[in-house]
């Protein structure tokens, strides 16, 4: 039912020019989906896809036009910052490559060795946390990986926005990726009138 609510919000409020994503409205609509829902927490990520050139070295600039979350320089650097990407391969390397950031404005390219991140280039591009612009320096991308198990022709970059409200500008259109949104339902034992009310409640 919540998934249907999100799909309706998507078609009624988004998927059109000047369609703004209002976090509080989505939270309210989700709460009002059914009287059994007592509350919800909605976490937002922001993604954009691009089709790489596979015949020549090319640089890329993606303008999200919404600020990214970066409370201090070096934020979350050891865990990959706030940027992630789907996989791709480049000329001269057999490994599947990915992108993240160092929290200080640098986009890093890496691959995994036995599940451990190994950096190939710690200055593969730049990320402007204030303007939401990501630049990827020249690469010859030979192929892209499947995304969530499906064949793909694009690379997807995902970030954490500074605001839960997302505003499209310069001919952008927003939509909720409802097919890949995760909805988890947890029973709330703390209900007025129940035996647990007021006793040992853990949020």
Number of helices: 2
Using only C-alpha atoms, the radius of gyration works out to: 20 Å
The poorly predicted ranges are: none
Q: Which percent range describes the beta-strand content?
A: 25-35%
Helix-strand pattern, N to C?
A: HHEEEEEEEEEE
- What form results from the Cα inertia axes? globular
Mean pLDDT value: 91
Structural class: mainly beta
Number of strands: 10
Distance between the termini: 24 Å
Determine the fraction of residues in helical runs and give it as a percent range: 10-25%
Oligomer: single chain
Largest sheet: 5 strands, antiparallel
Strands in their spatial order, largest beta sheet: 2-8-7-6-5
Number of domains: 2
Give structural notes.
This protein is mostly beta strands. Strand 5 (98-101) and strand 6 form a beta hairpin. It is globular and about 60 Å long. The strands form three sheets. The protein has a five-stranded antiparallel β-sheet, with no helix packed on it. Strands 1-10-3 form a three-stranded antiparallel β-sheet, with no helix packed on it. It folds into two domains: 1-44 and 164-185, no CATH class; 45-163, no CATH class. The protein contains two helices and ten strands, in the order ααββββββββββ. The two termini are 24 Å apart.
